[in-house]
Amino acid sequence: MIILPVDAMENKYEIRNSSDQLIFSCNDFIECYDFLGTRGYYWYAFVGVSQQNVNLIIDEETYSINNSQFAGRLDSEFTVQKIIKSHNILYAGLYLSGGMYKRGALSLLKTANEFEERVWLDMKGSLKLIYISASYLKNGFPRTLDKETIVIEGKYIQDYYAFFCELGYAFRGNFGYMGWNLAGVSDLLLDLARNRTINIIWKDSDLSFKAIENTVPESRYQSVSSDIVMTLKEYCNVILE
């Protein structure tokens, strides 16, 4: 019998059904390449499953997955569309819904160099949502702030989503989460700015404003740079440089 280290046991993934009954646990949950060219769902591998004969109901049952290291933040639900069994690995085509998880976030957390600053810089456009999702999974909502002055480096804001990446970095460092839309930013600032003053210095602001304005997604047409500044000023002292 193989005895897993304590930390490995604590970091197992648990899969439960809609009645919160534990169906099985596994050592790892891996995002896979879509080798069958399916549409509407994605392939994942459950590695080191806790039992040999796992019976998952196709399409009609809703399951949830959780892992203690994410403290409940990996809160997506899924239905199973297809299953392929291979030794102690269970490959499954899953349709995931709900939660803050974005496909690719788990892979990013496993491969990113924790000492590399601003790892989102090489990610194009909406792909930065993967970094933002990974930031939430890793660190969650900010509860405290140990800085009096926040510096936003506008030269690193290449597009709309880069603003939210840089804002999280300015407040909390690499993989810092400060929301992925203005409503989320407002909610977090409301808590952080309670009974204290937060100063924000936004460097190269004009340069970043142009990058934001030129890349605002159609679904976010109201969230232009002026709205961003207005939201920040509602809770903080903002200096534009």
Structural description of this entry:
It is a single chain. This protein is α+β, with helices and mostly antiparallel strands. The protein is built from 7 helices and 10 strands. The strands form 2 sheets. It has a 7-stranded antiparallel beta sheet with strand order 2-1-5-6-7-4-3, with no helix packed on it. Strand 6 (77-86) and strand 7 (89-97) form a beta hairpin. Helix 2 crosses helix 3 (128-139), helix 4 (160-172) crosses helix 6 and helix 5 packs parallel to helix 7. The model is unreliable at 1-9 (pLDDT under 50).
Beta-strand segment tally: 10
Reading the helices and strands in chain order gives HEEEEEEEHHEHHEHHE
Q: Outline, from the CA principal axes?
A: elongated
Q: Structural class of the secondary elements?
A: alpha+beta
The number of helical runs is 7
Q: Between the first and last Cα atoms, what is the distance in angstroms?
A: 62 Å
- Strand order, main sheet: write it out: 2-1-5-6-7-4-3
Mean pLDDT: 89
Which sheet architecture does the biggest sheet show? 7 strands, antiparallel
**How much strand?**
15-25%
Q: What percent of residues adopt helix (DSSP H or I)?
A: 25-40%
Low-confidence stretches: 1-9
State Rg.
20 Å
